[in-house]
Amino acid sequence: MITQRIYRWVVIILTLFLTWAIGGRIMPATLPGPAAVIGRIPLLLVPGPGGNLMTHLVQSLLRVLSAGITALILATVIGIMMAQQRSVELAVSPWLPLAMTIPTLVVVLVTMVLFQFSEAAVITATVLVTTPYATVTVWEGARTVDNDILSVAAAYDASSWAILREIYLPAIAPAVFGSARYLASMVWKVVVLAETFGMSVGMGAVFRFWYGQGDLEAVLAALFVFVFVMVGIQAGITHGKERLLAWQT
């Protein structure tokens, strides 16, 4: 299975690079090729305007981590409460579709202005955008818990903590990991968008700087590094999910 996954990723990466290289040959004045973009990366690592890429990368990753963990915790708590208590479900469920239909750009802009383009603004905007999606996933997972099992637990006077630990958490574990993987792919996009609007440090600031310079090669080089790191994080989450949930298969 691991071999098949590696083979699939190799094919995807080779196809992507081949398509990219062909596009660079067809439109050399518009689209820099892979070799030029990768060769530009070392120049972005040195100090200077638009440089210090690792400093910006680390700062963005810290924001991604903070916002992702916060969103996942909120989604897990809200999702379980919605599954356990009908009143909570009735109060929250109508707002989830509304929250998911508001354009991300609007949420980010309003939040950045309200929080004066601060660190809290980036985290808050990201949590507001991503939490509803993860909440729906956890809620759907928690709803699969068998009511008969809950009835048996109630008959034996099991505590709320015991029911949560022994029944709900094992049931929603796949949903939580699924949400974590989804958040990993979504959170960084919102973080970068928020950084682009007003942060001086972060990958969004790098993209803004080089876009202002009209240097697409530098933009793609910075994006290449960031996407490479985020794909690695997603792969780590997937691997952790398979190992921790191996008992279910």
TrEMBL record:
Q: Where are the transmembrane segments?
A: 63-83, 95-117, 167-184, 191-212, 218-237
Keywords attached to this entry = Cell membrane, Membrane, Transmembrane, Transmembrane helix, Transport
Name all ABC transmembrane type-1 domain ranges: 57-235
Identify the domain of life.
Archaea
Report membrane topology.
Answer: Multi-pass membrane protein
Give any Gene Ontology cellular component.
plasma membrane
- SUPFAM superfamilies assigned to the protein according to its UniProt record, in alphabetical order: MetI-like
Q: Where in the cell is it found?
A: Cell membrane
Might you name a Gene Ontology BP term for this protein?
transmembrane transport
InterPro entries tied to this protein = MetI-like, MetI-like_sf
User: What family name appears in the similarity comment?
Assistant: Belongs to the binding-protein-dependent transport system permease family.
Q: What is this protein called?
A: ABC-type nitrate/sulfonate/bicarbonate transport system, permease component
